[in-house]
Amino acid sequence: MASDESSPPPAERIRVVGAWAGALEVDLGVWTVPMLRAEVARRAGGGVEPDRVSLIFGGRVLKDDPPASLQQAGLKANAKVLSTLAAPDRGKVIAAQAAAAAAEEEHTNRLVRLWDAAQALSQRHTDGSFHEEDFNLDLEDQSGQKVMFGSVDDIKAVKMALMLHQKAKTFIKRDMHKEALDVLVMAEEAFSLCDPKLIERVDNVPMLQLDIVWCYFVLRDVSCLEVAGTRLEKARSGFERSHGKDSARFRLLQAGRHADLAIYVRLELLEGVVAYHNGNTVKARESLTSAQAKYMQLQVPDEAISILMGMGYGERAAKRALKMTGYDIQSSVDLLCEEREKKLRRVQEDLEMQKEIMEQRKYGKTPMNKAINMQKLKGLVTIGFEKKLAAEALRISENDADKALDLLTDPEKNCILQRKIMSRAKRLSHGSGSGSSSSGAAAATTASGVNNSQGPVDTSTSVPDGSAMEESPVLPVINEAANNGEAVNNDETVNHEEEAMSDESAEGDEEANPPPARDVAMETELANELTGDALDDYDIDVSNEGQAISEYLSLLNSAA
């Protein structure tokens, strides 16, 4: 019986000789010259581009324009086509190599800038340097409490490592895993500068190891398989030290919440992948099955999200809270309230910190480019000294409280301090210091550019040696001395050389210890990416992990 359905036209065979030789089964009425050229280039191998292949039939070169089928071009069954391979365009090759080299150089320079900026920020926000910004970098634990451990060098190294790690996580979120891997290695180097006994107490280092292996996995870098296993072992042991066995300590700190569940999904997935490629199918199945079970626990019901969104919470915040509390509505609300209180408290602390930094700027910098130590200043004010006078004493004495106390308690030196403050106030009021205060103003302007969200910095009180004071009336003692013109003139005559030497010494010290050049753009980029959110590291989107788990379990089942 004849069928009503039309069968597809039979494919004809043509022979290709030359650059690639062989027979091809083609539909002459459907295939075009570009299609044939692309197929010959593919079969030739070696990454040959189709535009390098020329096709000759019947003594003429087959053209792409106008587009036509092979049948229209005159080819028939068993036609013989000659293929030739043109030499690559040397200019294009050189241009491509130059572009690749330029891109690599730019990437390397950016990594150097990242390292230098992180180093400068950590140095400046640890050793008491004069603040060029209206923020401060502090270390906090998961409850938001400030942490001080180890030496100054340890704190600098930890701050530097955390800034670089945060930058790498930003790259990971943007699917820029190759760039992230380079920055993660830099963060690992920064952590290595810290005392190992200190950093083994926290989970930042094992999370760094986990992120590095995740980049290996996404980049499909099989060459790192062996080192990936070693890094995962370090991550596993590091989590056990910081979180406790079966995360018991972590659960206690987090009020029984499962905030770390997503981390272990990723960890067990990667352990299963490494075991699979090493031929250990039993270990692979065990890790992947455990990862899949945890992954299912992170699938939040839409109904629960709707309930929290109905209370006024955003979708992302609601979903995160539900994942970390096992879908418990009341616990999720408690967590969201705690986070809101932390944010409000942080805003208040930031305002107080900015106020303190602005006050520090009024007093200027020490000869070694350090800011006035506000704690020592409060101590001197507590025992009865006027704040501006005590600040100037600390500035001159390089924040040495004992030396500052000697200056304040010595009547003669105290008078010199008062006259210096009064003299600067007069210069500011008469505008005589405007031409020589450009360096201070420039520094303040740069600081305001670091965080554009904050108010501009007032540079009207900048003076040549970095010190400044308000345009309010000075000390009553100074006012009394100012009313007695003869006494002031006599004192100035006697102590003029000493005061001048003190000013010149301070200015000379500043010239001998100039502040290092800043990469403001890179420092701003690093600082703006610091969220201060203690739970942000545990809030991982595991959708890619879920797909990978299913893929490798399917491979195991197929092998079985």
Kindly describe this structure.
- The protein is mostly helical and 560 residues long.
- Among the domains are: 76 residues, Ubiquitin-like (UB roll) (Roll); 138 residues, Serine Threonine Protein Phosphatase 5, Tetratricopeptide repeat (Alpha Horseshoe); 54 residues, Helicase, Ruva Protein, domain 3, CATH 1.10.8.
- Helix content is 61%, strand content 4%.
- Strands 2-1-5-3-4 form a five-stranded mixed beta sheet, with helices on one face.
- A hairpin with a 3-residue loop joins strand 1 and strand 2.
- The protein is elongated.
Helices and strands, in order, run as EEHEEEHHHHHHHHHHHHHHHHHHHHH
Tally of helical segments: 22
Q: What percentage of the residues does DSSP assign to strands (E)?
A: under 5%
How does the overall form come out from the CA principal axes? elongated
CATH topology of the domain at 107-244: Serine Threonine Protein Phosphatase 5, Tetratricopeptide repeat
Q: List segments where confidence is low: pLDDT < 50 over at least 5 consecutive residues.
A: 1-5, 432-510
CATH hierarchy: architecture of the domain at 107-244: Alpha Horseshoe
- Sheet with most strands: 5 strands, mixed
Instruction: Assign the structural class, choosing from mainly alpha, mainly beta, alpha/beta, alpha+beta, or little secondary structure.
Output: mainly alpha
N→C terminal distance:
46 Å
Q: Mean pLDDT, rounded to whole units?
A: 76
Number of strands: 5
Rg (C-alpha, Å): 35 Å
Spatially, the strands of the biggest sheet line up as 2-1-5-3-4
Q: Which percent bin holds the helix content?
A: 55-70%
CATH domain class name of the domain at 107-244: Mainly Alpha
Domain UBA: 299-339, 371-411
Pfam families: UBA
Protein name: UBA domain-containing protein
InterPro entries: NUB1, UBA, UBA-like_sf, Ubiquitin-like_dom, Ubiquitin-like_domsf
